[in-house]
């Protein structure tokens, strides 16, 4: 078991943070971490990190109305599934995420806080979209409200990063997630192609873990180019759609795009306090989170199917565009209800979990029907015999022949 999962690991890391702050000034620490960091009291498990938000939404966000994940909750809400969020960290104190965030890990970070410090707010929003719980007094929930979040912090400041040093850290985080029982890995980020990153993705796929990644957002004055790890084979690459079901203009297009999720005018939990943040420009980062939430629902509802079958189910049940599939949105908007409940397969090869063909119903009048059939058969035979004898009888009468009487020749 990793040190981060042992009892007392949190206290040791908080004490380590205090020792670091005793050496470095507050200004230096803020510069290294990309923002202000509040020193926690001994009773607090993790410091308050990142920006605060505004009031909670009073109406259901359009993305939740469009996807209607509650329709799939009659089957399950994601219980037993762990989703690794490899991002800027996830703050566990928000009411929406309270009790949902497991101890994680920090990669390439000065202060180690088990992935539970989000200075940017990006990872916390992603986690809320995936597994925000019910019963907070707001009409906002996650797609899989009973799933758990495993936070892995790889980006201190940037939401998307093409720094050549980053792919290696992302690859390490992927392997760590796999080795710590993640069933789904959410990668709401893009980076450069890298052998170590590609190897880590393949490691996850070989271990039967669902990998969902952002197809990427267009950069100003830059043509579309493949985004990694989304462009690797086996990864579910996610594009963004707007309220009208149209392709979000900033969402990268490419042959590797598999599916789409809500990617514009997004709302999610803030990392500090109990408020919510709005992202009007959205992005494929958040679309990816919606698809990861549905993947968690599918894994919980169908624990015996493979990661490849989960991906197949997501794309086969999506709300397809008119042409079935295209480079903008792949197979279309993810559909939670259909992804969880549809029976996929053929008559010769029924899908896992399909019900057997029903037995023919018992006929309470079966014996009467049998007797009636025999009566009809016997009656038909008798009618045939009578119809055959009738010409003989007619001819006999014409000749003066009578049944039961024998003609005796008379004497001359």
Automatic annotation (TrEMBL):
<keyword id="KW-0378">Hydrolase</keyword>
<dbReference type="InterPro" id="IPR022398">
    <property type="entry name" value="Peptidase_S8_His-AS"/>
</dbReference>
<feature type="domain" description="Peptidase S8/S53">
    <location>
        <begin position="78"/>
        <end position="332"/>
    </location>
</feature>
<feature type="active site" description="Charge relay system">
    <location>
        <position position="122"/>
    </location>
</feature>
<feature type="active site" description="Charge relay system">
    <location>
        <position position="87"/>
    </location>
</feature>
<keyword id="KW-1133">Transmembrane helix</keyword>
<comment type="similarity">
    <text>Belongs to the peptidase S8 family.</text>
</comment>
<dbReference type="InterPro" id="IPR015500">
    <property type="entry name" value="Peptidase_S8_subtilisin-rel"/>
</dbReference>
<keyword id="KW-0645">Protease</keyword>
<dbReference type="InterPro" id="IPR036852">
    <property type="entry name" value="Peptidase_S8/S53_dom_sf"/>
</dbReference>
<keyword id="KW-1003">Cell membrane</keyword>
<dbReference type="GO" id="GO:0006508">
    <property type="term" value="P:proteolysis"/>
</dbReference>
<dbReference type="InterPro" id="IPR023834">
    <property type="entry name" value="T7SS_pept_S8A_mycosin"/>
</dbReference>
<dbReference type="InterPro" id="IPR050131">
    <property type="entry name" value="Peptidase_S8_subtilisin-like"/>
</dbReference>
<keyword id="KW-0812">Transmembrane</keyword>
<dbReference type="InterPro" id="IPR023827">
    <property type="entry name" value="Peptidase_S8_Asp-AS"/>
</dbReference>
<protein>
    <submittedName>
        <fullName>Type VII secretion-associated serine protease mycosin</fullName>
    </submittedName>
</protein>
<dbReference type="Pfam" id="PF00082">
    <property type="entry name" value="Peptidase_S8"/>
</dbReference>
<keyword id="KW-0472">Membrane</keyword>
<feature type="transmembrane region" description="Helical">
    <location>
        <begin position="371"/>
        <end position="393"/>
    </location>
</feature>
<dbReference type="InterPro" id="IPR000209">
    <property type="entry name" value="Peptidase_S8/S53_dom"/>
</dbReference>
<feature type="active site" description="Charge relay system">
    <location>
        <position position="285"/>
    </location>
</feature>
<keyword id="KW-0720">Serine protease</keyword>
<dbReference type="GO" id="GO:0008233">
    <property type="term" value="F:peptidase activity"/>
</dbReference>
């Amino acid at each position: 078991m990793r040190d981060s999962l042992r009892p007392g690991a949190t206290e040791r890391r908080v004490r380590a943070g205090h020792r670091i702050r005793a050496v470095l000034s507050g200004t230096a620490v803020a510069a290294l971490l990309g923002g202000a960091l509040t020193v926690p009291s001994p009773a607090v498990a993790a410091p308050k990190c990142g920006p605060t938000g505004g009031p909670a939404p009073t109406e259901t966000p359009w993305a939740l109305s469009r996807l209607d994940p509650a329709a799939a909750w009659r089957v399950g809400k994601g219980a037993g599934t762990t989703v690794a969020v490899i991002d800027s960290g996830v703050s566990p104190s928000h009411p929406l995420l309270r009790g949902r965030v497991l101890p994680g890990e920090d990669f390439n970070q000065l202060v180690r806080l088990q992935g539970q410090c989000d200075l940017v707010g990006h990872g916390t929003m992603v986690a809320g979209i995936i597994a925000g719980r019910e019963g907070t007094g707001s009409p906002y929930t996650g797609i899989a409200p009973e799933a758990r979040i495993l936070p892995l912090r790889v980006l201190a400041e940037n939401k998307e990063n093409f720094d050549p040093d980053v792919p290696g850290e992302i690859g390490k985080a992927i392997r760590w997630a796999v080795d710590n029982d993640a069933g789904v890995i959410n990668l709401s980020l893009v980076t450069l192609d890298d052998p170590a990153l590609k190897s880590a993705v393949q490691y996850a796929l070989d271990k039967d873990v669902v990998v969902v990644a952002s197809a990427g957002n267009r950069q100003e004055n830059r043509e579309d180019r493949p985004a990694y790890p989304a462009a690797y084979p086996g990864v579910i690459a996610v594009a963004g759609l707007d309220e009208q079901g149209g392709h979000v203009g900033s969402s990268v297009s490419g042959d590797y795009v598999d599916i789409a999720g809500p990617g514009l005018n997004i709302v999610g939990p803030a990392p500090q306090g109990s408020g919510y943040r709005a992202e009007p420009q959205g992005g494929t980062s958040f679309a990816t989170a919606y698809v990861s939430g549905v993947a968690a629902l599918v894994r919980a509802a169908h624990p015996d199917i493979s990661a490849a079958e989960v991906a197949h189910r997501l794309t086969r049940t999506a709300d397809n565009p008119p042409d079935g599939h295209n480079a903008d949105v792949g197979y279309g908007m993810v559909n939670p209800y259909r992804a969880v409940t549809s029976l996929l397969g053929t008559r010769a090869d029924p899908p896992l979990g399909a019900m057997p063909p029903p037995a023919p119903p018992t006929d309470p009048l079966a014996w009467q029907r049998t007797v009636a059939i025999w009566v009809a058969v016997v009656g038909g035979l008798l009618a045939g015999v009578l119809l055959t004898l009738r010409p003989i009888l007619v001819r006999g009468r014409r000749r003066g022949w009578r049944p039961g009487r024998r003609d005796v020749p008379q004497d001359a």
